[in-house]
Amino acid sequence: MNENQKTIDLAEKLWTRLRGQKPDTGRHPQICGDIPMSIGRDGTWFYQGGPIGRIELVKLFSSVLQRDEEGGHWLVTPAEMARIEVEDVAFIAVEMQNEGEGKDQNIRFRTNIDQWVELDDDHPLRVEHDPETDEPSPYVGLERGLEARLNRAVFYQLVELAEEISDPDHNMIRIGVYSHGKFFEIGRMEATE
Fold it and tell me: Which of 80, 64, 70 is nearest to 27 (CA)?
């Protein structure tokens, strides 16, 4: 059996479980351990070391993907759950749209699996900085504990919309964007007098 057939068989099993049986009350999925599936830093999904080329399969697997409190990623069906390796995050934000301006602005992102997510209280922005280079890595929250990292072009678009807000209590200027009435910080700098 070739790798593509194994991937298709696994997808069919997951699909059958998703569409079919519901777990019994009080019953939890059986933990199956690790499976040879991973997601690279660029958002490419792999099975047994080879890329999964069909976006339909990636979308199917992503529909049952969850992240636990320790940062582990799991494919969870009503009957089984299996851990997969994720290099950074499961998704990449590849497009951004905004409507309105200032505090009335609404921003949304499209992921590499064509999922749209609003930048809001339920889907916040966070930015990590590399301790050696100080290069930013921006992420937007998704459902089920998952996140999407903004690709460089999308991050630059977001930065173009940025505003500065003075924070005199901390002698800082906060740099960020408004979306759905909330300010999301991209960065900060020390205020100069």
Answer: 80
In angstroms, the first-to-last Cα distance of the chain is: 70
Q: Which pair of structure tokens corresponds to residue 8?
A: 């298709």
**C-alpha–C-alpha distance, residues 45 and 84, integer Å:** 10
**Domains of the chain, CATH where assigned:** 3-86 (3.10.540.10), 91-190 (2.30.270.10)
* Sequence letter at residue 111: T
Instruction: State the pLDDT confidence band at 1, using cuts at 50, 70 and 90.
Output: low
How does pLDDT run across 92-145, given as a tens digit for each residue? 999 999 999 989 999 999 999 999 999 999 999 999 988 898 889 999 999 999
Mean pLDDT of 166-182: 89
Structure tokens at 116: 């749209």
Q: Contact, 43 vs 112, CB < 8 A?
A: yes
Q: Tell me, what DSSP letter sits at residue 60?
A: H
CA–CA separation, 21 and 40 (whole Å): 31
Q: What are residue 184's DSSP bridge partners?
A: 177
Question: The tokens of 50 are what?
Answer: 């080879």
pTM of the complete model:
0.80
Place of tokens 């205020």: 191
